[in-house]
Amino acid sequence: SLTAGVVAVQGNVAEHAAAIERAAAAHGEDVTVCEIRESGLVPDCDLLALPGGESTTISRLVHDEGIAEEIREHVAAGKPLLATCAGLIVASSDPRDDRVDSLDLIDVSVERNAFGRQKDSFEAPLSIDGVADEEPFPAVFIRAPAIADVGDATVLAEWDGRPVAVRDGPVVATAFHPELTDDDRIHRLAFFETEDSLERAPTETVSNGES
Ligand code: GLN
């Protein structure tokens, strides 16, 4: 059985927990989700979500609580992390904002609140590399960042000519909020369809619990 952590210092925690549970069930995995508000829990987690919210607050709290270094070690060990919206900003190598002390986990620079005030929130149908494409992904953007420069990361999706989803090793990051719809394809991609987990599972059939 797997342990999932949702960094819960601020932001959309319950929604990520529910999406992780659905994605795990779709892959026949048992998962226990715990909320991370203090240090000492991340080392027990097999996978982690870093939710949206407000990036200056999240970055300050993860550093103050001693969680920042544990998240870095999690990723350095090759374990999956899904960072969404403000989580993308916090995980980036360059948040282009001195008030965000970012974790340098994805080699991208970001532009906060890049999609304009009159479009504070919108939904876009995205085609995402690695996500089964029978229908577009309903991506909810809320005061979303855009990805500006992409270094070593791989772009998975674009909207309006800008990258909005990337992968960098074990990290998948989105400018939008995949936890706010009941579509869990991004959570499956980030956590259960990584190169490592695909090597473990046979293609086509997904094992139902025992691996
Ligand atoms: N605008 C927020 C920030 O820059 C991110 C918004 C979100 O996570 N929905 O921190």
Automatic annotation (TrEMBL):
UniProt superkingdom: Archaea
UniProt entry keywords in alphabetical sequence: Glutamine amidotransferase, Hydrolase, Lyase, Pyridoxal phosphate
Catalysed reaction equations from the record: L-glutamine + H2O = L-glutamate + NH4(+); aldehydo-D-ribose 5-phosphate + D-glyceraldehyde 3-phosphate + L-glutamine = pyridoxal 5'-phosphate + L-glutamate + phosphate + 3 H2O + H(+)
Entry annotation: catalytic residues: 85 (nucleophile), 177 (charge relay system), 179 (charge relay system)
EC numbers, comma separated: 4.3.3.6, 3.5.1.2
GO MF annotation, one: pyridoxal 5'-phosphate synthase (glutamine hydrolysing) activity
Pfam families xref list: SNO
PROSITE patterns on file: PDXT_SNO_2
Pathway: Cofactor biosynthesis; pyridoxal 5'-phosphate biosynthesis
Residues where L-glutamine binds: 53-55, 112, 142-143
Family (UniProt): Belongs to the glutaminase PdxT/SNO family.
Assembly, per entry: In the presence of PdxS, forms a dodecamer of heterodimers. Only shows activity in the heterodimer.
Its job: Catalyzes the hydrolysis of glutamine to glutamate and ammonia as part of the biosynthesis of pyridoxal 5'-phosphate. The resulting ammonia molecule is channeled to the active site of PdxS.
PANTHER family according to UniProt: PYRIDOXAL 5'-PHOSPHATE SYNTHASE SUBUNIT SNO (PTHR31559), PYRIDOXAL 5'-PHOSPHATE SYNTHASE SUBUNIT SNO1-RELATED (PTHR31559:SF0)
Name of the featured protein: Pyridoxal 5'-phosphate synthase subunit PdxT
Natural source organism: Natronoglomus mannanivorans
